[in-house]
Specification:
Largest sheet: none
GO molecular function, one term: RNA binding
Structural class: mainly alpha
Radius of gyration: 19 Å
Helix content: 55-70%
InterPro entries: PPR_At4g14850-like_plant (IPR046960), PPR_rpt (IPR002885), TPR-like_helical_dom_sf (IPR011990)
Number of helices: 10
Keywords: Repeat
Length: 172
């Protein structure tokens, strides 16, 4: 007998593979009871398969969302360079985690919008969110695009002051 747990396991497997979501959609459509895990599996799968339009359509149908839902959708937009859509979603988020801030900063830097990356980092700091090595690496990328070696001292002191772990990407 199939129940929501069994269906969610099937959806999760499809989401991890993330290629063709049509079979996952068939499973999802057969479900008489869906929970947040069911909906999140579909959003994750659609994002992993690159179908952001379907992911957003499912996201918009959800009556309940959690950090996984919001973050998955946001990262899908930023990794595909859809920064305007990412910003609209980010602004609507009820809670902005370090992962979300970093996705925005990284997305702006990777999309050739370094000033917006640095502005986002400034807002993150004003929101009292402590950066980590990933956020710092994205800031370094933005500074490099702006050809601002004069700010190397600033980023070094930030890393030291905040106790950010140094690795092969952060100030080696």
């Amino acid at each position: 007998q199939r129940d929501v747990v069994t269906y969610n396991a099937l959806l999760g497997a499809h989401a991890r593979i993330g290629k063709d979501m049509s079979s996952a959609q068939m499973v999802f459509d057969q479900m008489t009871v869906r929970n947040l895990i069911s909906w999140n599996a579909m959003v994750v799968g659609c994002v992993n398969s690159g179908d952001l339009d379907l992911a957003r359509a499912i996201f918009d149908q959800m009556s309940e969302r959690n950090d996984v839902t919001w973050t998955t959708m946001l990262v899908g937009y930023t990794k595909n360079g859809l920064m305007d859509a990412a910003r609209v979603l980010f602004d609507a988020m009820p809670e902005k985690t370090l992962i979300c801030w970093t996705a925005m900063i990284s997305g702006y830097a990777q999309s050739g919008r370094p000033n917006e990356a640095l502005e986002c980092f400034r807002w993150m700091r004003l929101a009292c969110v402590k950066p980590d090595a990933f956020a710092t690496t994205s800031v370094i990328s933005a500074l490099a695009q702006l050809a601002r070696p004069d700010l190397a001292h600033w980023i070094t002191s930030l890393v030291d002051r905040e106790g950010i772990e140094r690795n092969e990407r952060v100030l080696t």
